[in-house]
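Moderator note: this is an archived Q&A kept for reference. The question asked for a predicted structure of one protein chain; the sequence and the answer are reproduced below.
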Amino acid sequence: MIVIGLETSSSAASIAVAQDHQILAETFLRVDTLYAEQLPGLLKRTLAEANVTIQGVDGFAVSIGPGSYTGLRVGLSLVKGLAFATGKPFAAVPTLDAVAYNLPYCRYPVHVMLDARRGQVYAARYDMTEGRPERTSAFQAAAVEDIISDVHETAVFAGSGAEVYRTQIYESLGDKAHFLPPGVACLHASSIVCMGAHALKQGEHASLYDLEPLYLRRPIFTKQPETHSKRVRNLSGK
């Protein structure tokens, strides 16, 4: 099974192509704005590096959030357009799950935190002892002190929020808080595509018409996203 995965929940977008969980290509793009203009070009480049055509893909995977309102909206729009144009299924992967995916068989509970700004983090707790993320809490958008007030055991903290609030977490929990080296367990399309491929094999297909991004907070939109219909037609050859 060949799957394309998109990660667009932050200012560092990435796209990966995998075949049976082997990464064929992964490309990255640092973008603060203009997601809609740059993603199709990044997709074409990734497909070329993987020596795969859009017609040869069996499915798609996309990060569904939480994260950047604009990035999530644009990424989901592009994947929905590709799924519609090719008739192939797609899977939606929560960003917090994708970070936890990088810590298989961790012996301690894993608390994933993504920086949500405004003094908050997006967070969830995971049991990784079986090798895959088992979420043991609800997704939350909360102040970091509210998250760590519920931590009473030794735990691993991962994600951009854990890096931003590392000092505060350590001051509260001391040696019970374990942190990862910078760059470990980052949010990349390679995790999205592997988790998405697993979901597709299990028949867990996302809804083309009903699925919306997982925001956790009310989004504030200042500009409507650019349509992808023309770019999708060019990519699909239709």
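Archived answer notes: The chain has a mean pLDDT of 90.
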